[in-house]
TrEMBL record:
Phylogenetic classification of the source organism: Eukaryota, Metazoa, Ecdysozoa, Arthropoda, Hexapoda
Name of the protein this chain belongs to: Serine threonine-protein kinase genghis khan
Region called Disordered, residue ranges: 14-74
Keyword entries, A-Z: Kinase, Magnesium, Metal-binding, Phosphoprotein, Transferase, Zinc
Span of domain PH: 146-243
Biased composition (Polar residues): 33-71
Gene3D superfamilies in the record: 3.30.60.20, Pleckstrin-homology domain (PH domain)/Phosphotyrosine-binding domain (PTB)
Superkingdom in the source lineage: Eukaryota
Cellular component GO terms, alphabetical: cytoplasm; cytoskeleton
GO biological process, one term: actomyosin structure organization
GO MF, any single term: metal ion binding
Keyword Ribosomal protein on entry: no
CDD domains in UniProt: C1_MRCK (cd20809), PH_MRCK (cd01243)
CC cofactor: Mg(2+)
Length: 299
């Protein structure tokens, strides 16, 4: 065998064995990848913080992390003006929303009802947290705002006690007693019309019970409770509120004070066409004869 033939034979055998070994090595590597080696490769992988690729990877990871921590944005209230057909209290200040129409606003999403001025003070989160949806009854002693007590009583019918008694719904709100008529129908709700308002700020306001003779005041309203315990609750609640009112000496916020004008010598009083209040003691009235000023303190 020549040297050339011997060289070609060795080269062919070497190439064949090398290719088989390399293929077997590739198959072994692909068939049984090592988890440990992959971890070590990741740990050994170094990223240059100054390279653009590292900044891109960091920005992507931070943005992905920020997206996972984002919480849904709370919804806001959608208030619309509403008209209530029964006495309704403001869910924010607990005072009554008085009036015949358009007494307040209601959120279309969560149903939160409140006064229009209270709308800006309501927690913006919709729905309102459960611990703030139903506030306990009570009157703010510094401002005199809020509902302190409510319930059902009986009052005399038109014509006196001998005519019988009718059921009414009473709400003690803003140091006033609001009396609402109730239809005789079963399960009827109180009417939105206020039949009578008793102001506890009146200097002559007082609470008495179980009197056999009339107190002799200008005006008195009889109320009959269903049970003795209910009567005690009403008397204690009203007496305590009246005591708080007197103790805090809240300012008088009365806008008008009613006075009766009666003078037979002044014929134009019967033909009054307009009027305006100048101050608590003087009144201007307009008639066909002209404009007159009445001094209420003079006889």
């Amino acid at each position: 065998m020549s040297y050339l033939e011997h060289f070609l034979k060795e080269t062919t055998s070497t190439t064949r064995h090398g290719s088989v070994d390399s293929v077997e090595g590739d198959i072994e590597d692909n068939r049984a990848p090592s988890i440990t080696s992959s971890k070590s490769n990741l740990s050994e992988l170094s990223i240059d913080p100054t390279s653009p690729l590292s900044h891109e990877l960091l920005n992507k990871s931070s943005s992905t992390h920020g997206q996972t921590n984002l919480q849904p944005k709370p919804k806001s209230h959608q208030f619309l003006v509403r008209t209530f057909s029964a006495p309704t209290k403001c869910n924010h200040c607990t005072s009554l929303m008085v009036g015949l129409t358009r007494q307040g606003v209601v959120c279309e999403v969560c149903g939160f009802a409140c006064h229009m001025p209270c709308c800006d003070k309501v927690p913006p989160m919709c729905p309102v947290p459960h611990d703030q949806t139903k506030r306990p009854l009570g009157i703010d002693p510094t401002r005199g705002i809020g509902t302190a007590y409510e319930g059902y009583v009986k009052v005399p019918k038109m014509g006196g006690v001998k005519k019988g008694w009718v059921r009414q719904f009473v709400v003690v709100c803003d140091f006033k007693l609001f009396l609402y008529d109730i239809s005789p129908d079963r399960n009827a709700l109180p009417s939105v019309y206020v039949s009578q308002v008793l102001d506890m700020r009146d200097e002559e306001f007082s609470i008495t019970t179980s009197l056999l003779e009339p107190p002799g005041l200008r005006n008195h309203t009889l109320m009959l409770a269903d049970t003795e315990s209910e009567k005690t609750k009403w008397v204690v609640a009203l007496s305590e509120l009246h005591r708080i009112l007197k103790r805090n000496n809240l300012p008088n916020t009365t806008i008008f004070r009613a006075k009766e004008l009666l003078d037979n010598t002044l014929a134009f009083i019967k033909n009054v066409m307009s009027g305006a209040i100048i101050d608590p003691d003087r009144l201007v009235i307009g008639t066909e004869e002209g404009l007159f000023c009445l001094d209420l303190d003079r006889n």
